[in-house]
Amino acid sequence: MALLGAHVPTAGSVGRAFANAKAIGADSVQIFVKNPNRWGAGAFTEAELKAYGRERDRHGNPAVVAHASYLINLSATNPETLKRSRTALKDELTRCAQLGVGGLVLHPGAHLGAGIEAGLDAAARSLDLVLAEIETPVPVWLENTAGQGTVLGSRPQELAALIASCDQKVRLGVCLDTCHAFAAGYAVHTEAGLEEFLEAVETHIGSTRIGCFHLNDSLYPLGSRRDRHATLGLGEIGMAAFVWLAGDARFTNTPMLLETPVGDDKQEHARDLAHLREALSA
Questions:
Q1: Are 56 and 14 a contacting pair, CB within 8 Å?
Q2: 275 labelled binding-site residue
Q3: Among 74, 276, 108, 102, which residue's Cα sits nearest to residue 177?
Q4: Residue 180 assigned to a binding site
Q5: pLDDT score of 119 more than 90
Q6: 3-281: what fold?
Q7: Is 272 annotated as a binding-site member?
Q8: Is 189 annotated as ligand-binding?
Q9: For the chain, what percent of residues have pLDDT higher than 70?
Q10: CA separation (Å) from 41 to 25, 33, 86, 135, 231?
Q11: Do the beta carbons of residue 82 and residue 110 sit within 8 Å?
Q12: What phi-psi label fits residue 106: left (phi over 0), alpha (psi between -120 and 50 degrees) or beta?
């Protein structure tokens, strides 16, 4: 079975991720290593890193994935934004290495009118510059997108082209988001459509580059190009697709992480994970 988990909060201390994960029954964890809506952040203190390590060990050393800041755009046409994006990515990779994170999920960027080819070329240059300047064992996992606006990476072919253009391609992989694939026009709500999407990934990228999955239902219909997540089974994709994917032997021990809406009682992820495990064991 896949390592089922969720994005969890780290308010107060990054080490709190593990207690929060245990509370919802997660076998894997996704975190932000800094505020995702700010460029800068103070460095981790030695005490914070030691506390993080103790908590991780105490909770059985679960798989940890990080998600990069939403501000980063490695295809930015504004020189200052591009500089900030590259600096931010270097900082996040450094933080990930300090925390022993398995991979950093990154949105490929937006071309902002320059065109897909130009945007992919710019992103590849940025990735090469960043990865050449920082030696870290943490790979960058490029996430497929919903195809909204000028955002890059809605098709496996685009992610493949970006990886192929990078000199540092050995340090690149992908994160596959079910909601994004559905919004981009892949019929992952059917068993045949899900397999077609996975075959496209295998053909153009290679399944060995899959670092993790984001398990998200979609609030909007197939091909909407709108990135709005829904609770598993309550959106347009439906529960069956997540059972097929999580039960796929090809992805045993691969983190599959919820990024679905959470309400006031904070128990939606616990219910989603329990529901999914129950369906898998039926």
A1: no
A2: no
A3: 108
A4: yes
A5: yes
A6: TIM Barrel (3.20.20)
A7: no
A8: no
A9: 99
A10: 30, 9, 15, 20, 31
A11: no
A12: beta
